Amino acid sequence: MLTVGQKFPSFSKTAVVSLEKGKEFETLTSDYLVNDDNVWTVMFWWPKDFTFVCPTEIAEFNKNFGEFRDRETRLIGASTDSEFVHAAWRRDHDDLRDLKFPMLADTSKSLAEDLGILEPTEKIAYRATFIVDPTGVIRWVCVNDLSVGRNVAEVLRVLDGLQTDELCPCNWEKGQETLTV
């Protein structure tokens, strides 16, 4: 599995960005992650569309979209399902209709494989979260097993800590003192 300090892999994938007819899909590439505007990226993966735990996580990321935006951070959700399945799920599920971030489709599973997050039996993505800095370098990775949802507040806490570029002690939260050496 790719880890902290490694470059996020190159990719070009279709993503669902809207439910408006004719504007549903866009191509996202790894170039999207690298920028001079100091914009970070959080890419989070779920195993399968039309399941039970996954929409709770996606809805919670969406609920916190403004928190990520306030931190100059893009959100990208992803799974190995197709863009058509993503679009159908968004239309079908009340909590997913108004998503403010793209749902990336990795149908070839190449990006999940490059990241090292494919579950070996079913070949679906683990619940992996990557925080990527504006240079395209992975700064944090967290992976949950298939049955356990992640904590979006913890993703925000770690993002805050990384963005200070300082030493943050255990349980540190934004606004608290950082460590001085």
TrEMBL record:
Residue ranges of domain Thioredoxin in the record: 2-164
Ribonucleoprotein as UniProt keyword: no
Active site: residue positions: C54
UniProt-listed Enzyme Commission number(s): 1.11.1.26
A Pfam family annotated for this UniProt entry: AhpC-TSA
Tree of life domain: Bacteria
GO cellular component: cytosol
Catalytic activity of the protein: a hydroperoxide + NADH + H(+) = an alcohol + NAD(+) + H2O
Enzyme class label: oxidoreductase
Record GO terms (molecular function): NADH-dependent peroxiredoxin activity; thioredoxin peroxidase activity
Keywords in alphabetical order: Antioxidant, Oxidoreductase, Peroxidase, Redox-active center
Family matches, as InterPro entries: AhpC/TSA (IPR000866), Peroxiredoxin (IPR050217), Peroxiredoxin_AhpC-typ (IPR024706), Thioredoxin-like_sf (IPR036249), Thioredoxin_domain (IPR013766)
Any one GO biological process: hydrogen peroxide catabolic process
Subunit structure: Homodimer; disulfide-linked, upon oxidation. 5 homodimers assemble to form a ring-like decamer.
PANTHER family: ALKYL HYDROPEROXIDE REDUCTASE C (PTHR10681:SF121), THIOREDOXIN PEROXIDASE (PTHR10681)
Name of this chain's protein: Alkyl hydroperoxide reductase C
Source organism of this protein record: Mucilaginibacter myungsuensis
